[in-house]
Amino acid sequence: MSNFLIPAAYAQSAGGGGAGSSLMSFLPFIGVFVIMYFLMIRPQQQKQKKLQTELKALRRGDRIVTAGGVIGIVQKSRDDSQEIEVEIAPNVRVMVLRSTVTTVLTSTAKPANDAVEAKK
Question: Which of 23, 50, 72, 101 has its CA 20 to 30 A from that of 85?
Fold first, then answer.
């Protein structure tokens, strides 16, 4: 019976590659993670940051799309409130949470440097 277990013991101790082979076996996983980060995770984070800045800058007259797919025009927006008033049809206004806005289609906000041209 003991002769039956000896070949398995030799197979386990034979050919120890050391730390170098374990690092080389993780290298493809590290490479895949780096590629996924630059192709998927980082662009999504940048898109999310851009949406957050657009949501903070919402003004009256901006056309938006909500998470439910409703397209409307912002009628009232306050910086200290999470609610905005959106007109979804003529004379039909609803209150929407700012966090449910997924896209700002057109914005009436102007950049600070384009507000007024200097007179000569």
Answer: 50
